[in-house]
Write a structure and sequence with these properties.
Number of helices: 5
Number of strands: 9
Helix content: 25-40%
CATH architecture: 3-Layer(aba) Sandwich
Number of domains: 1
CATH topology: Glutaredoxin
Structural class: alpha+beta
Strand order of the largest sheet: 2-1-5-4-3-8-9
Strand content: 15-25%
Order of helices and strands: HEEEHEHEHEEEEH
Radius of gyration: 24 Å
Largest sheet: 7 strands, mixed
Length: about 200
């Protein structure tokens, strides 16, 4: 009798656990429908630079916006043309409220008029894709300490400035939410997905 009672309790317990597990799976949405919010890698410090229209550009203009940043220079014969082509593609594919920010790492040569010509070459939409310049020391500090990316002078003829080829995703609060290799189509697609999750 005792053995029968023990087996009965065991069977009922297992049935209860199975039922609870099944109910929880019914109530929970499939894993694929739950957005995975990108991790946070710190905050972008405030900065003041100049845009391609010779207008002061304060990072406060980006507050409350999701934006993508990259670091290029207009005379670059290496990675920058591909980066800017991919950025132009992001401009077409991302929602209109997502801003794009390209900062030159060669401010001695990349004056606002030079950046304006470059912006037109890649079809940059005014008020959405900004090209920024400013004092070299300030830009290098922003890249290295603010975005935690590499930049240095002294490359070869095609790349006199060595710099990162990553896109950086920044959320509405100014937090860095992801780094993406602009030369890798898969990572660019991941960036687009992460923008959707934000």
């Amino acid at each position: 009798m005792r053995r029968f009672l023990l087996w009965s309790v065991l069977v009922l317990s297992l049935a209860g656990i199975a039922g609870a597990f099944g109910w929880s799976r019914l109530r929970r949405p499939p894993a694929s429908s739950v957005p995975s919010v990108p991790a946070s890698y710190g905050s972008v410090p405030s900065f003041q630079l100049t845009d391609q229209n010779k207008q002061p550009f304060d990072s406060a203009q980006l507050h409350g916006k999701v934006w993508v940043a990259d670091f290029i220079f207009t005379s670059c014969a290496g990675n920058c043309p591909l980066m800017s082509t991919r950025m132009a593609s992001l401009q077409r594919r991302l929602p209109a409220e997502i801003l794009l920010v390209s900062v030159t790492v060669d401010p001695k040569r990349d004056t606002p008029p030079v950046l304006a010509d470059y912006a037109r070459r890649y079809g940059a939409q005014p008020g959405r894709w900004f090209f920024l310049t400013g004092p070299e020391q300030e830009i290098f500090r922003l890249v290295q300490q603010g975005f935690r990316l590499g930049v240095a002078e002294g490359g070869g003829p095609e790349e006199p400035v060595i710099h990162s080829v990553r896109f950086v995703l920044v959320d509405r609060g100014g937090k860095i939410r992801g780094y993406y290799d602009s030369s890798d189509p898969g990572q660019v697609e991941q960036l687009i997905r992460d923008v959707g999750d934000l």
